[in-house]
Amino acid sequence: MAEVDPATYHWFTGDPMVHGVALSDGQARWYRNRWVRTPAVCAALGEPRPARLNVRAGMQSVGPNTNVLGHAGKTLALVEGGVANYELTEELDTVGTCDFDGTLAGGYTAHPHRDPVTGELHAVSYSFARGKTVQYSVIDTAGRARRTVDIEVAGSPMMHDFSLTEKYVVVYDLPVTFDSAQVLPVSMPRWLKAPARMVLSSLVGRVRMPSPITAMVNRDSRPPGGLPYSWNADYPARIGVMPREGAPTVRWFDVEPCYVFHPLNAYTEVSPSGQELLVLDVVRYAKVFDVDRRGPGDAPPTLDRWTINLDTGAVYTESRDDRPQEFPRINDSLLGSKHRFGYAVGINGGFIGDVQAEMSTTLYKHDYLTGSSITAPIDPQLVLGEMSFVPRPDGRDEDDGILMGMGHHRGDEEGQLVILDAATCESVATVHLPQRVPMGFHGNWTPTD
User: Fold this and answer.
1) What is the reported pTM?
2) Domain termination site, one of 295, 322, 349
3) What is the pLDDT of residues 14-37, one digit of tens each?
4) pLDDT-based confidence at 292, cuts 50/70/90?
5) Is the same domain home to 129 and 268?
6) What is the DSSP string of 220-266?
7) The Cα angle at residue 335 between residues 138 and 96, in degrees rounded to 5
8) Which domain-ending residue is among 322, 345, 371?
9) Distant-in-sequence, close-in-space partners of 447: CB < 8 Å, separation ≥ 6
């Protein structure tokens, strides 16, 4: 909402603004953008807070700036790390915080996944305040939590996303963890910082944090070092596999140190010898938040596949595409089952510096059956964001639909809603928006019915 300080700004800690376009009968009916009215945004705008606001002490430092989706008739703006998510109107105005009718406490996640069969919303939520656990939750089609499970992890990791199959919940317990040094006040005397860090480090990841400490860490002002998570070379890298229903027993499988923000999809299949295989397609970073503490600029993101033999415990790693790419998507009707096609935004120039000035993007369509890929003929002046798959009604093929997402055209200095044919990646239509839309994180398409 104002000029940022490069010394403390982090990509992930900006104030939340949502953008939307309403489509009907082949026309764009409106474009809107709205600040999500968090306490910090209301204070900056000089506005009263929304009437329905239940942000517990210490959970105000970062607003829901990461993702937006529709569920149970509500539009939800989402973020992770134990911070509150918010409900919006269809016109993107703020209703207030959302705790799913009081059935889910302690914050949520930026990346829930909807089961295409049941319509339920599955999620894995993390927070340094949860102690040595993350929480798996299932939100039913009425918008209430019907199942919650605490999963014990190795410490206090940043768990941005997870994978869901027809049978399993898959969590990525990887070496990006809470860093107490990043949350100590700048004004704290130097002689106090070392013991204060020791106290925080002794508590975080071992016990649920007392509310006064939680409030200090998640105070309204942002941490002096940006995001309070960093690469931790001493932390194990492993994948946890838990049945979706029944006893919450987790099996752990070690992998090489790395980080995953976004998996593309996961599924199980039976090998020719009759063994159960878990296939995980992910965008993998060799390292993040180590040297570059302001964004994921330490290593390029590549498309990998992990195959876990659930009978023998063996893990096989395969690089599917070493070109830098992010924001992977599939036809969501196949989420949790075997897919043939996947889509990702190609990133040239990396997540460094003034990203929109230096980075160029494209779109890749991956064919996992043939091993081939298509590169979409994107205007080089267009900085493309995440693309959502919208299935064509009564479509028969997996890629029978369109891809839709927002971008910033640098040459025309305007925002665009880009619509591509999902089979060919050729342009179908472009909605020219009345203003520039800055590069954001995630987006989704929601039908009115």
Assistant:
1) 0.89
2) 322
3) 889 999 999 999 999 999 999 999
4) confident
5) yes
6) SSPPTTSSSEEE-TTS--EEEEEESSSS---EEEE--S-EEEEEEEE
7) 45
8) 322
9) none
